[in-house]
Amino acid sequence: MGPLRYLSLSLLIFFCKIKIIIIWGLILAVVVEEEGKATAAAAAAGAECEFPAVFNFGDSNSDTGGLSAAFGQAPPPNGETFFGAPVGRYCDGRLVVDFIASGLGLPFLSAYLDSIGSNFSHGANFATAGSSIRRSNTTLFQSGGFSPFSLDVQSWQFSQFVTRSQVVSKRGGFYKDLFPNEEYFSRALYTFDIGQNDLTMGYFHNKTTKDVKAYIPDVLDKFADVIKSVYYLGGRYFWIHNTGPFGCLPYVLVRVPRIAARKDRVGCGATFNEVAQLFNAKLKETVAKLREELPLAALTYVDVYSVKYELISRANKVRASAYGVLRARREVQLRRPHGLRVEDHGEQHRGFGREVVRRSVGEDMLGWDSLH
Ligand SMILES: *[C@@H]1O[C@H](CO)[C@@H](O)[C@H](O)[C@H]1NC(C)=O
Ligand SMILES: *[C@@H]1O[C@H](CO)[C@@H](O)[C@H](O)[C@H]1NC(C)=O
Ligand SMILES: *[C@@H]1O[C@H](CO)[C@@H](O)[C@H](O)[C@H]1NC(C)=O
Prior knowledge:
Blueprint: H1 3-10, H2 22-32, H3 37-44, E1 54-58, H4 66-71, H5 96-103, E2 123-125, H6 151-169, H7 173-176, H8 184-187, E3 189-193, H9 196-204, H10 209-232, E4 237-241, H11 250-255, H12 257-260, H13 270-293, E5 298-302, H14 304-314, E6 318-321, H15 322-335, H16 342-348, E7 356-359
Parallel strand pairs: 1-2, 1-3, 3-4, 4-5, 6-7
The protein binds 2-acetamido-2-deoxy-beta-D-glucopyranose (NAG) (3 copies).
One 2-acetamido-2-deoxy-beta-D-glucopyranose (NAG) binds at residues 134, 136-137, 201.
Keywords: Glycoprotein, Hydrolase, Membrane, Signal, Transmembrane, Transmembrane helix
Transmembrane segments: 6-32
Family: Belongs to the 'GDSL' lipolytic enzyme family.
């Protein structure tokens, strides 16, 4: 199995609970792999997929403890299956980035922001839940606020990590084993999964779809700046996830009902998904341009959207966990003090797959909470 193929397969573990549709995932693995440079990346890194480290940038889709370290632990039941306790992931178990790390034979990534028990010998994770590419003008202390650790901030943290980790590592002994070898930076895999919050942010701030579409080029310019900064710091292998069909996420449907009213064949918000697809088309162009500008880099564009969308549209039932339903209900209550009943919420989102149903934790389900 080729290394890139291997990574593609790890992407199958897309949502926290995959069992129901693993077969579809296997079929869809082909969607994930991009030709051309991907193969070059794999070849250059060694046919056996010898990436000695992973450095990740992103939002909650790949946060392994950053936001939790800064602002308080993600509460139970997060982490309840694989880890048996909350571990800073907005998920019951492992995230895609965890499967990528273990697929490469590496330990799970410690969050850069986590000063307790972290070990960065094989990489670091700069992602935090609620991060966007552009800086947000609303803080987490406001309703609907976003993480202050936008992608540019994450890249400054990485830059600091490159230099300071080597200074400390030279103290030897214990410290040497806590940080990557210097040469790892040019051989590591740099993974990115970010952009969804830039799109939802506009809607949550009452912008029109036209406004949101209009700022996509600016978002992608900022994304390209960060890829270049990592390249100039020595990064060569880039694994870039596009954004998912956020028009299928209950929290978006609940918070922006007017735009959510137009549904696609699956029952997801058509307008939101069109915006996600526009973003992805432009991201793909951006990646193509970066390949020209950064001749020594191997950039792989990964079509996460198609995998998630197929998963949702082919599932018989999209099941939210009890936690998901409660969380979605809380979102509704924030908008309307008297709230909607859980059943109303289920009714409102009929057609997202087939129906959103209340399930006890532990059963097969596609969604973990209303956001993930
Ligand atoms: C934040 O506000 C500034 C100044 O008004 C604006 O230029 C920028 O686009 C805003 N950022 C976002 C993400 O809306
Ligand atoms: C950090 O992790 C590496 C790889 O798992 C291990 O060899 C090393 O001993 C760890 N360092 C410390 C200080 O625990
Ligand atoms: C968006 O509009 C709603 C309803 O008019 C309003 O309550 C809310 O404060 C607005 N949000 C922002 C960020 O302007």
